[in-house]
Specification:
It is built from 16 helices and 15 strands. The protein has helices spanning 40-45, 81-100, 124-137, 157-165, 180-185, 192-205, 223-236, 253-261, 271-287, 308-313, 341-349, 363-375, 382-389, 393-396, 398-406, 421-424; strands spanning 55-61, 111-116, 145-150, 170-176, 209-216, 240-245, 291-292, 297-299, 318-322, 327-330, 333-337, 355-360, 379-380, 410-413, 416-419. The structure holds iron/sulfur cluster. Iron/sulfur cluster binds next to loops.
Length: 443
């Protein structure tokens, strides 16, 4: 059987879903992040504070009740309360070190994001203690948004009250699908009754923004079931709906099983079907009054419902990443922490450096990063890039834009480059046109 190191993702995404990561979540590619650049981080942290430049905080909770078959994160399903206590305390030591650095000291996060894993796996008491301590180290009273990811089956009224009370403004529910059989065969821990219960509690508590996640193309998804999922989402009427197209990275259980069977294509819908499903969902959400605001999201009221974490990150904000395997970005340095929980905790306890790999980016790389990330919004404003980086994107990429316009993928307006809906739905496969020449062949 072909080894995963020999397979490259098929970026065209025209046919079957093959193994690999299609979703472009950062730039330059992770494979370029290295040990050598880790040494740049302490000098950055010792440098003067950049004043009012926006700062965010990402907190990673690596625990889940069960491992989903499509999951590619490092998550732990076997940790006891002592292990969790040890982890939480290690992350607070990590936060203290950032907060004491001259680069971060005195700055207040503009956005906070609890991701995972499953942040809602933590108990109400653990969450209360954790967030009180976080706030005492780095106050968030100026945060414009606090996002918290939840697995519906871990929520109950008391825990949701705690989550609301420590300041969460954007509650994100990982529903993924409404069919219990599909949830079960994809390895999800929750069932649909937990979704309805959690959603109702959350609505009663008055969160500013409730997002629900769906995945188009889970194992055994059908046209009929997908249409039913869209009906159910419209009935729930959340502020924001996020839809991912299923991809099968190499470290998923689905890929392991493909490998055992000698298969290169994943047993999920092909890309055209997944895009058709998202198109159907976006179309029906628009008919229900929603506005599509990126390749993955539709919101009920675009004036009120923002996603500050995404928008700040995609325009180059600093972000401290806390916890095992966390990703951060400070002063133009990308970094990632150690990826094994015991190693992470041991290292923090012995006062060692927990950053495992980093990349000191160039101005040019930061420009490309923002450009490719902002394409995912379906709208790029040339004046933004001219002002911030002094680069005329219309001139630099005239050939690409001519080609995209000719094929109907791009609509060029006054200071706006807008992707057509069909292009938006496959935007991740189009972004490599902007990668610098030295990164073109890097997965
Ligand atoms: S809930 Fe999310 S993080 Fe946890 S196993 Fe499933 S996909 Fe992975």
């Amino acid at each position: 059987m072909t080894d995963e190191t020999l397979i490259k993702p098929d970026r065209e995404t025209k046919d079957e879903t093959k193994a690999g990561s299609y979703f472009v979540s950062n730039y330059p590619p992770f494979s370029l992040w290295n040990e050598k650049d880790v040494d740049c981080l302490p000098s950055m942290l010792n440098s003067p504070s950049p004043g009012s430049a926006p700062l965010g905080l990402y907190y990673h909770v690596p625990f889940c009740r069960k491992r989903c078959h499509f999951c590619y994160f490092r998550v732990y399903t076997d940790k006891n309360s002592n292990d969790i206590r040890r982890y939480l305390s290690a992350t607070m030591k990590e936060l203290k070190a950032y907060a004491a650095s001259s680069y971060v000291n005195g700055r207040k996060p503009k956005f906070v994001y609890f991701g995972g894993g499953t942040p809602s796996y933590l108990s109400a008491q653990q969450l209360t203690d954790l967030t009180n301590e976080m706030k005492s180290i780095l106050p968030w009273d100026e945060a414009e948004e606090v996002t918290f990811e939840c697995e519906p089956g871990t929520l109950h009224e008391k825990k949701l009250e705690v989550i609301k009370n420590f300041g969460v403004t954007r509650l994100s529910l990982g529903i993924e699908n409404f069919d219990d059989h599909i949830l079960a065969i994809n390895g999800r821990a929750h069932r649909s009754n937990a979704v309805f219960r959690a959603y109702e509690f959350a609505r009663q508590l008055g969160f500013d923004n409730i997002n629900v996640d769906l995945i188009a193309g889970m194992l055994e998804e059908t046209d009929e079931n997908w249409s039913n999922c869209v009906d159910q989402v419209i009935d729930l009427s959340p502020d924001c709906v996020t839809i991912y197209q299923m991809e099968i990275p190499f470290n998923t259980t689905i890929f392991k099983s493909m490998k055992e069977k000698g298969k290169l294509s994943a047993p999920v819908a092909d890309w055209q079907t997944k895009r058709r499903w998202v198109e159907e969902a976006f179309g029906r959400l628009e008919s229900a009054g929603y506005t599509v605001t990126s390749a993955y999201t539709a919101v009920k009221d675009p004036d009120k419902t923002k996603f500050i974490y995404r928008d700040r990150l995609w325009s180059g904000a600093d972000m401290v990443g806390l916890g095992v395997a966390s990703l951060g970005h400070l002063g133009g340095i990308h970094y990632q922490n150690l990826t094994h929980i015991d190693q992470y905790c041991d290292t923090i306890e012995s006062e060692g450096p927990v950053v495992r790999r980093a990349l000191l980016t160039t101005d040019e790389e930061r420009f490309v990063r923002e450009l490719i990330l902002q394409w995912k919004l379906g709208l790029v404003r040339p004046s933004y890039f001219k002002e911030k980086f002094g680069i005329d994107v219309l001139k630099r990429y005239s050939e690409v834009f001519e080609e995209w316009s000719a094929s109907g993928d791009l609509i060029i307006g006054k200071d706006e480059l807008r992707l057509s809906r069909t292009a938006l739905l496959r935007v991740d496969s189009m972004l490599h046109s902007f990668f610098l020449p030295q990164h073109q062949d890097i997965a």
